[in-house]
Amino acid sequence: MTLVLGYMRSGSSLTADIIRCNHGDFYIFEPLHGLIELSIKQNSPVRFLNGTRVRIAQDDRNINNMMADMLYNWFTCDFRQIDLLSLSNEFIHIFTPEHDTYFNCLRGLRMKSALIRTIDKCLHILEERCKIANSRIYKTIRLPMASVSKLLERLPSLKVVHLIRDPRAILQSQLVEGLADKIKFSNISNLTCTQMRNDVINMKSLVVNYPGRLQRLVYENLAVHPIEVSKKLYNFLNARFDRNVEGFVNYLTTGPVSKCNYCTNRGNSSYNAFKWMKTIRPTYHRIVDQHCREIYREIGYRQLSFYDLKSKKNTWNPNAYQRSVSL
């Protein structure tokens, strides 16, 4: 069992695809998307297959605990304890086409019966595939590291990959894709780096309490050294890195650069990882520096002047400790 914990536009899709390139894995792109959509709507209850309705108390601890419980149900293939919105979310169709048999079943019956009856008739497709899978892999950008201990305690075979990327790259990518409001950019930068800082702090204690079960993965290092880092990643997951896996990693990370921002195989991974350095504007660069200096120091990112960015090819320059705790 593998959980990839990342951030919006942190390179988590590439990382998850490298992990799950073996046939027989059961993978969901963002199993918590539906639950989060409900959590921001105070009058919308969480609905389950048995007809139960649960209203989410609007505090972080309650929501985080519910997300951890829901991920536990995903990992144990207990889909009848997962909220209806997550089980019918478009993300399943868009980002995991291997589950289209299930999603097409939903789509074919949706107009003929209520959502509960529709899911009830189709859910066996998802359940059977999950139960026979060689491994179960879930990628989320929504679960805080503080909630991971609950999963590690309940799932002894779970491994957690904490994916970190330069926050300047994350936030610039969000701007380019229209995922960050330019007017509220300072607040968004502060929230993003506060979350990353809290996750890094919480992971330090988790590594002590659950040795060998968590590993930091620096996206820039994966982008520059895809084969070397992928081998280390597979070793951490106790998975076999063979010629087929190596060929797939090469396919994902080399070749001409693709303009498809949401495709995994976008070509030259090193170019894609650092192109933000040529496009970020001085104002936004200054704002991210203001809020994210602590993350730079913690992970090993260079804090560079706006003009020095143009002459550098990599922002990750870790010390011995930072390299020892990172893939």
Based on Cα principal axes, name the global outline.
globular
| Through-space gap between termini | 19 Å
Flag low-confidence runs: none
Q: How do the strands line up in the largest sheet?
A: 2-5-1-6-7
Helix/strand order: EHEHEEHHHHHEHEHHEHHHHHHH
Fraction of helical residues = 40-55%
Provide the structure class.
alpha/beta
Looking at the structure, the CATH topology of the largest domain is: Rossmann fold
Task: Just give the CATH class of the largest domain.
Answer: Alpha Beta
Rg, nearest Å: 20 Å
- State mean pLDDT (0 to 100 scale): 86
**Largest β-sheet summary:** 5 strands, parallel
Question: Architecture of the largest domain, CATH level 2?
Answer: 3-Layer(aba) Sandwich
Instruction: Give the beta-strand count.
Output: 7
- How large a portion of the residues is in β-strands, by DSSP E? 5-15%
Count of spatially separate domains: 2
The CATH fourth-level homologous superfamily of the largest domain: P-loop containing nucleotide triphosphate hydrolases
Query: What is the count of DSSP helices, taking H or I runs of 4+ residues?
Result: 17
Write the layout of secondary structure elements.
Blueprint: E1 2-5, H1 12-19, E2 25-28, H2 33-39, E3 46-47, E4 53-54, H3 60-75, H4 84-87, H5 90-95, H6 100-109, H7 115-132, E5 135-140, H8 148-154, E6 159-164, H9 167-176, H10 185-209, E7 214-218, H11 219-224, H12 226-236, H13 243-253, H14 269-274, H15 276-279, H16 282-299, H17 320-324
Parallel strand pairs: 1-5, 1-6, 2-5, 6-7
Antiparallel strand pairs: 3-4
Helix pairs in contact: 3-8, 6-7, 9-16, 10-16
GO molecular function, one term: N-acetylglucosamine 6-O-sulfotransferase activity
Pfam family, one: Sulfotransfer_3
Organism: Magallana gigas
